[in-house]
Amino acid sequence: MKLNEVRVYPSKVTLKREDQLAWKIAGVAADKVAVTKDVTDMIINRIIDNASVAIASVNRRPVVSARGGALGHARKGGAQIFGAPARVTVSPEWAAWANGTAVRELDYHDTFLAADYSHPGDNIPPILAVAQTMEKSGRDLIRGIATGYEIQVDLVKAICLHEHKIDHIAHLCPAQAAGIGTLLGLKQDVIYQAVQQAVHVSFTTRQSRKGEISSWKAFAPAHAGKLAVEAVDRVMRGEGAPSPIYEGEDSVIAWLLGGKDAVYHVPLPIPGEAKRAIMDTYTKEHSAEYQSQALIDLAFRMRDSIENVDAIEKIIIHTSHHTHYVIGTGANDPQKMDPKASRETLDHSIMYIFAVALQDGFWNHETSYAPKRAGRADTVRLWHKIETVEDPEWTRRYHTLDIAEKAFGARVEILFKDGSKLVDEMAVANAHPLGAKPFGRADYINKFQQLTNGIITTRESNRFLEAVQNLPKLSAGELSSLNVALPAGELLDSKPGIF
Fold first, then answer.
1. What is the C-alpha to C-alpha distance for residues 303 and 84, in angstroms, rounded to an integer?
2. Could you read off the pLDDT of 488-498 as tens digits, one per residue?
3. Do 376 and 417 lie in a common domain?
4. Which residue in 105, 147, 260, 352 has the fewest CB atoms around it within 10 Å?
């Protein structure tokens, strides 16, 4: 890996494109380096993971709405939509929209956290949609997905968006565009323009994850994917983009990120170096914000030492800056303490999540968020006894780039009314690569079978699992086998719109 300095230059300085971050990203995308076997295996795992959560959410309202819009853009020989028969095909940017929303809706797929946040599995829907439309092979798809993960993870390691209240799809969209460029075997100068287009159109604010969180949290990465497909299409037709998009005097860095004096150092593979960033990412065992994964596991462990939850006086969670200020009491969001809050808000309230996990000893993507469950009087009482506090050491471990030390957990103090105290801590979730029970292929398959049970047939489940595990051998035009279809008549229809 090489660290690449990125800063703002005045307009009077002509910055060569070879010195621009977008050009260097494009160079990584255009590099035809082979994908290693372990990375290939992990890509297959994440395609399974995405299908799991997409099918589990397939008839939830935001997903139904996204699918309805996509079905208004039918295209012969286009891309498939999760849940629909393989014969139903739409324009790829709209398949990216529908499938991206399905994948993101439950907040239950993979994550990478460093200087900023990300769900790099969001790269898969647009790259797959283009691959199906352009009749690419399984190996082409693998190469494209490896690039998408690499670019997003590298940007997330170096450039913080959230401190400037910019949503994390600003790193996702250029990664998706780069991944599509790799998939299609585009030249570096074409990918360069696509990356710049993608950056330019994808900067949005973090209000989508603040206050009363709406369904846009699910739509946002899908919107990025749609924009990425459109960006690549435009530049393939000969169009350019604002340049230099990162370093210009009126660029995103100058006005939306660190400002004209900011300096970033972005790690990128050197020519011929394998794209391995996916191996630094991790999926979720529980359907909740990633910073809650270790705390859910910790709650399960601590409850074994608690005879009476009603005897609890107070719970203090000592954790990182992010956990405290984004999903903890440091956010100062009254909605995070409201039993009538939306599911999207509850899965961003560590106070709610810890209380329910402590009481129930299990976590379910539906029942743990049900309005009746959230409104239980004893849960509300316990929930409101919980507060978070930033601990500098947990913040340091959160931000370190040393994967062996990186942590997303907390130390929890449970104070009882009789003056006694129970203290425990957990650095990483059980399913994390460094956790007690790291996720492997069997766990991804089990997650798929559990989440799709009763939604798709056993025959369809087996067919998909066989096809996806044979991904490197799928020929051009065979990627429709990666779609997962519900039985006829089981897909809900959306309300009418314009399309």
1. 42
2. 999 999 999 99
3. yes
4. 260
